């Protein structure tokens, strides 16, 4: 029996001489050196093809990748260096990195590497819908498995377009998976249909793509946080500008509002439809923004109301495909997705803001920022009307009434839909507009609930504006950060940076709880707000939970005051959070309601539902102060695990 010596067996992946552990089908075997199934070559000298790396070269490739992943760099630089490293090491010319956004249902080309710079510039704006009709690319992402395919076998028009643009005949696709979810994909383009060495490329790249997935996800989260920070700054700057200028120049005010909106979403066309009460014509304000050349143009036209009346009848914010609405298209609006924000002013004027994305959809963080800014814009537009039509006293009273109404919409209207829990919460402002704030924020998977209560320094419109902006920031941060302390730290950075040079600095105390609805564990952090109460149903006892921290906005760095604690909540347990407007309420003799009275009332009414507990406590408080004027906002929150 003829038997080949062991040294005749060469593994093409690790280039080491190895006797196979056992030959499998199609001439493959299991290499004991590299721990992979590979092609067996009967040679005494390893045949290393143009894209097959030796052990030393593979080690260098892995080390180069680790040096990238361990570096601190932006998203664009990360993708550029990763693609260039693959190009140099594997001697590949055309490499693409696509990023998936499941929230928007799209796959976007984030980076394309090619020695042909004209091709690199021409291909940079490709976006695919996350739809199986696109064929192999989306199938690969959905299944999380690498694939090699020929473009000629694909029926979707995208592949013919891509092939003609790049000269690609076949392609290797490797999903970039994080926690078994595709965050993107890496593709290698080949100029031949039957490229025999793709398998080696696949094996080598799969060694590093997992680590790249972690770095890519972290960079995407950081990039998203930077965009949110930019939106927060835009909101703050716009709020200050709109509140001080343009009240006597209506058209210039509208232009500034549209400019700010287009900046938040980077839209090339932003519109406002404005129809005064009972008018047969509507005014259309358009702002065109050239995103490439940074040029801005505006125009204003009149249109018969009957031609766009369905748009003026919209009562709530909606998202549409502009190509499906003849009324939107009649305004010259084209793109992939449009958002319509309707509002009706006190004087009966109907307005609809229309924002359009040309090549993508609106992510949730942008929608949050847009809703917040439209609320600010409404206040400014109402103020402009008041400035023109009312006396100073009437204008001030009306402004407070409008701001109070808008502020009430920012507080929770309904209890969150968390099975097994009961909620209660309310705020009674001292001057129509309050600086107190409370909220319930349920995670999209309904497994976590954030509960907060806070108190802005001062009262009235200024404090209410800070409260509204902090709410927007908080709703955005809980989507990307788990730690209550990290969220408080970011809010502190915003308040300090925004108001450190203001004539009247703004500070805010807060308690933030992160409640795991599955385990019952509560993680909480404090920012100089004081205590809250925990009623234990099993022992029928009451605990006073002391929070720590420092008031937000006083100093730039609060890391020395970091505090994070945990509590366990069992069935029947109830918590009560409150602001100092409750305990510091005084009667005619100057005596405060106090914590002891609050605890006593809480304990006395504990058998009631949380919302009824708060109503009873407030009734006792009103009986205590009688006719005395309320000097501070009164806010309370109660939550029970059923």
What amount of the residues lies in strands?
25-35%
User: How are strands sequenced across the largest beta sheet?
Assistant: 6-5-4-9-8-7
Radius of gyration: 31 Å
Mean pLDDT: 81
Cα separation of the termini:
78 Å
What characterizes the major β-sheet? 6 strands, antiparallel
What is the number of E strands?
A: 25
Low-confidence stretches: 1-8, 39-51
The total of helices stands at: 17
Shape: globular
What structural class results from the helix and strand content? alpha+beta
Approximate helicity band: 25-40%
Protein name: SpoIIE family protein phosphatase
InterPro entries: Bact_Sigma-Reg (IPR052016), GAF (IPR003018), GAF-like_dom_sf (IPR029016), PPM-type-like_dom_sf (IPR036457), PPM-type_phosphatase-like_dom (IPR001932)
GO molecular function: phosphatase activity
Keywords: Hydrolase
Note down, in words, how this protein is organized:
InterPro entries: Bact_Sigma-Reg, GAF, GAF-like_dom_sf, PPM-type-like_dom_sf, PPM-type_phosphatase-like_dom. With 642 residues, the chain is α+β, with helices and mostly antiparallel strands. It contains 17 helices and 25 strands. The strands form five sheets. The protein has a six-stranded antiparallel beta sheet, with helices on both faces. Strands 12-11-10-15-14-13 form a six-stranded antiparallel beta sheet, with helices on one face.
